[in-house]
Amino acid sequence: MSQFEYQNGVMHAEGVALTAIAEQYGTPAYVYSKKTLLDNFDSYANAAAGRDALVCYAMKANSNLAILKLLADRGAGFDIVSGGELLRVVAAGGDAKKVIFSGVGKSVDEMRLALSHDILCFNVESIPELHRLNDVAAGMGKKARVSLRVNPNVDAKTHPYIATGLKANKFGVAFSDALDTYHVASKLPALDVVGIDCHIGSQLLDDAPLLEALDKLIELIDTLHAEGIHLHHLDIGGGLGIDYGDGAPVPVGDYLGRLFKRIDAWRAAKHGGQPVKVIFEPGRSIVGNAGVLLTRVEFIKHGEEKNFCIVDAAMNDMARPAMYQAWMDMQPVVQGGAESAMFDVVGPICESGDWLARDRELAVAPGDLLVMKTAGAYGMTMASNYNTRGRAVELVVDGAQVHVVRQRENPADLFALESTIK
Ligand code: LLP
């Protein structure tokens, strides 16, 4: 359950009124609930309890050190996509040995860094990447554990920008090339072939495509087994969606229940009982509904065709509406304000694409606070400094306590690395 609810007409984050937070820390602000974050993680951990399973939080969704530390303390592993993310895991006190490294373009330096931290596995996406990793590992006198990201060609039925498992996507090794690629990998001396992975897309409300992908992975594991390549883990990726206010996903426990049931049936029937560790890479479903973006209304403007509610947050703070036409819920912090009307909620940036919500019935007046809900995933991590806007302050609420976990950026911070020339 989300911890962002109205209490006496004022929206709270756990035990703290968002009005008090805005007063003290200013706006725009990202506000996270510790309880919601941990409850979300626990719904995976509990459903996988007693199993050989690892939940590797996809930290691209939200990589604040405080979030990482809370999850690491709960036993999470991490799915990273850059050397920078690995350094964040280490800085947060996470265990590098529970890290898997995804992504199509890992550099030599990133591979070296990851090998020096002895990460759990590289999720490799192409033959050239296999050769590069083999060379780097050999040069260091090490063996790199690898999994191949296969593309199961399953339609995730989600927004085209966040569907990744189709033939036309840049991700993964084509299903039809997977066997050959495994044979290449298994002959490279500095690689240890340990797993198979996929990630078919993001914001999936139904688990049917995920289970279809699972069946494809299982089929490949069997074929490989028959050819003498024995895998130790199966990584089904992330992708389970959240309720942005326009539709609820299948509960995590139901999805994992169905997934483990299939795995049990397969192992009992075919695989001779050989254990296969299951890895998950959830991002959004861990952190999405654990955060909101708090913003204040600057002006109300009545255009010829539309009313605009101009707020102090913008597309640089939250890019999802501009980038994916994402629908995100927007609510007043204090209920029962001005008379309601239809508005487009927009930011101060000089782009027509700078909008946060369109055609919403809202009761708002200048100075009021609005909250964009379910903004914890792919909000702050996709924020930019466009228009030389400092990124928002980030706060974690724990009961009645508020912790600043990232300070608001000052303009001087933004050009500190720059210099002028004559
Ligand atoms: N594993 C891999 C290999 C991924 O590429 C992703 C997300 C995940 C796991 C985590 O997926 P999740 O559980 O969060 O769905 N910026 C977009 C989402 C991009 C997702 C990219 N990959 C958005 O704001 O909707």
Number of domains: 2
Unique bound compounds: ligand LLP
Q: In angstroms, what separates the terminal alpha carbons?
A: 58 Å
Q: Runs with pLDDT <50, length 5+? A: none
Total number of β-strand segments?
21
Protein structure class: alpha/beta
Describe the structure.
The protein is α/β, with parallel strands linked by helices. The protein has 2 domains: 4-32 and 288-414, Lyase, Ornithine Decarboxylase, Chain A, domain 1 (Beta Barrel), CATH 2.40.37.10; 103-280, Alanine racemase (TIM Barrel, Alpha-Beta Barrel). The chain is 29% helix and 25% strand. The chain has 12 helices and 21 strands. The model has no long low-confidence stretch (mean pLDDT 95). The structure holds ligand LLP.
